[in-house]
Specification:
By secondary structure, this protein is α/β, with parallel strands linked by helices. It is built from ten helices and nine strands. Helix 7 runs parallel beside helix 8. The protein binds zinc ion.
């Protein structure tokens, strides 16, 4: 991590290439950024939820950490890919469902309560912002707790779908998260042919999680609403996203085009590093946690993975 280059921290202006070494100094700079921009558009990504025990996809250089996630075209086109996806998801769902918000989610909910938030836009599909108390969240990539029929648009609660998966795949239920810590690695060598995936109960169509997969477009209406909020906001704060996916990067591009300052909290490189006014290189919960004293239980939640 580069040092502070000797710039007076009281100016609280950092160049795009500059990061500061101490977490406290970075927290102060972040607080100052938030203080000076009372109508923030906040964009969050996977890094915001890693401290809640939900793994992210990217390493510090923005590359894939593990095997690439399933792409939309493969999921829709290949029954074997769907079986493998749903088998992994079936095993990983209980842990995902039990994840709890961490100090970063609580801090962002607090900013909304203080009237400081123009909008909270998230690339995450875990619902943890809402669980922390944020009431106005644009779920850019949808929510994993819902399943959608790609043929007739029927929506099913994931809990109902999970029950059906369980009923049809009792032998698979014995595999738990301890067997497959990341919900997939240890399943890689398994034969998925026996995993039975139900089709739509109404039209027999293909069921898919109601989230935007890699290779799939974000619904344009959702983007328009988020962009309208950006136009009203006075700054963009990115929390835990490398912005490697265009659906997120375009907000940084738009903010820069509108001359709005951009801050980012992220442990690694972001695609927008050259556009940033402030870069905070720290875990999201640590960087944001001091914005407010976390509510009772939140500190324990933040640490539990
Ligand atoms: Zn259907």
């Amino acid at each position: 991590m580069p040092s502070c280059q000797g710039r007076a921290t009281s100016s609280l202006i950092f160049s795009s290439t500059e990061t500061v070494s101490s977490i406290e100094t970075q927290q102060l700079a972040l607080h100052d950024f938030i203080e000076r921009h009372p109508r923030l558009l906040v964009l969050t990504g996977a890094g915001c939820s890693t401290e809640s025990g939900i793994p992210d996809y990217r390493d510090a250089d923005g590359g894939w950490k593990r095997v690439q996630p399933v792409f939309f075209q493969a999921f829709m086109g290949e029954p074997a890919v769907r079986r493998r996806y749903w088998a992994r998801s079936f095993i990983g769902w209980p842990r995902f469902r039990h994840a709890r918000p961490n100090a970063a989610h609580h801090a962002l909910a607090y900013l909304e309560q203080q009237g400081r938030m123009e909008a909270l836009v998230t690339q995450n599909v875990d619902g943890l912002h809402q669980a922390a108390g944020s009431t106005y969240v644009i779920d850019l990539h949808g929510r994993l707790e819902q399943v959608r029929c790609m043929d007739c648009e029927l929506r099913l609660p994931r809990s109902q779908f999970q029950a059906e998966l369980t009923r049809r795949n009792l032998a698979w239920q014995a595999l738990d998260a301890a067997t497959a810590p990341d919900g997939d690695a240890d399943l890689e060598a398994m034969d998925f042919a026996s995993f039975e995936v139900p089709s739509c109960p109404r039209c027999d169509g293909t069921l898919k999680p109601d989230v935007v997969f890699f290779g799939e477009s974000v619904p344009p209406d959702r983007v328009r609403v988020a962009m309208a909020h950006l136009a009203t906001a006075d700054a963009l704060l990115i929390v835990g996203s490398s912005l490697m996916v265009y659906s997120g990067y375009r907000f940084a591009q738009a903010a820069a085009a509108q001359g709005k300052p951009i801050a980012a909290v992220n442990l690694g490189r972001t695609r927008a590093d050259e556009l940033l006014t402030l870069k905070v290189v720290a875990p999201c919960a640590r960087a944001l946690g001091s914005i407010k004293r976390a509510p009772a239980g939140a500190a324990a939640e933040a640490g539990s993975v």
